[in-house]
From TrEMBL:
Provenance organism: Rhodoferax koreensis
InterPro entries noted in UniProt: Endoribo_LPSP/chorism_mut-like, RutC-like_sf
CDD domains: YjgF_YER057c_UK114_like_1
Top-level taxon: Bacteria
Protein name per its UniProtKB record: Endoribonuclease L-PSP/chorismate mutase-like domain-containing protein
Amino acid sequence: MTISRNTLLAQAAESVGFDLSEEIRIGGNYTPAIVHAGTAFVSGQVPRIGSAVAVTGRVGAEVTLAQAQHAARICCVRTLAILRDALGGLDAIAQALRMTVYVQSAADFTQQSEVADAASELLHQVLGAAGRHARTSVGVMQLPKGAAVEVDLIVAVDS
C-alpha cells in the first residue's frame, strides 16, 4: 500500500512541529504561490511556526548546522503546504524543478549545501522521485525577520 503525498507531508510537518491546520501567514502585498502555464512558483518561506520564526540568527555563529537544517525542513514543509492548498493536493505535482535555499551565514560558514540537503531530503521523502530537483544554496548577510534560512520552490504541475 502506497502512502499518499498528503499523508507524508502531514508526517513531515509533525516531525518539525508544524501544524498544517494553521493558516500560513504571508506578510506583504504578494501571493504565496502562482500557478502559470503548468508551473507553480512558491514565494520564499522562512521557518515560521504560527506567528514566530522558529530559528533566527547567523548560521555558524549563534545557529548550529543542525538547527539550520531543522529550519530548512520547516521552510520546505511550508512550501509543500502552500502547494497543497494552491493545487488542491500534492498529487498535482509532476516534478520539483528548482529549489533555492538562502542561509544567513557567518563570515566563515561554508556549509550552505549541507543546510539545503535537509530541505532536499524532505522534498524527496514527500514527493518520491518527483522530488528530485535542481538546487542552489546561497549564503546571505540577512533574511527577513532574522530567519536563519529561507527556501523557495518551483514545480511542474500536471495538467
